Amino acid sequence: MKDRLFERATKFVVTQGQTPFLLGNGTALIADTDADKKGRRAIKLWQMSADGKPEHAITTVSYWRPTHSRLTKALHISDIVQIASRYYLR
Fold this sequence. Notes:
This protein has helices at residues 2-14, 70-88; strands spanning 21-22, 27-31, 41-48, 54-64. By secondary structure, the protein is an alpha+beta fold. The protein is globular, with a radius of gyration of 12 Å. Helix 1 packs across helix 2 (70-88). A hairpin with a 5-residue loop joins strand 3 and strand 4 (54-64). It is 36% helix and 29% strand. It has one domain: Double Stranded RNA Binding Domain (2-Layer Sandwich), CATH 3.30.160. The longest helix is centred in the last third of the chain and has 19 residues, at 70-88.
């Protein structure tokens, strides 16, 4: 299970959060397209409809800054795996 989460988290980070990270319980992680005043993008937990489209944001679970650094991307992947594990296992 961890390897699958890691692969999905990698895809999520590579697409800068625009590919929904489906959690299997009618929710998904999606990153904002626009940054806030501090240059951060919010990663939010969304309720998904039956046809796979986001309905409404439930809560903000984390923030990140877009980067080209491989180390920072690796840290983002680690964060996404931890967040997904927390919500996926509920």
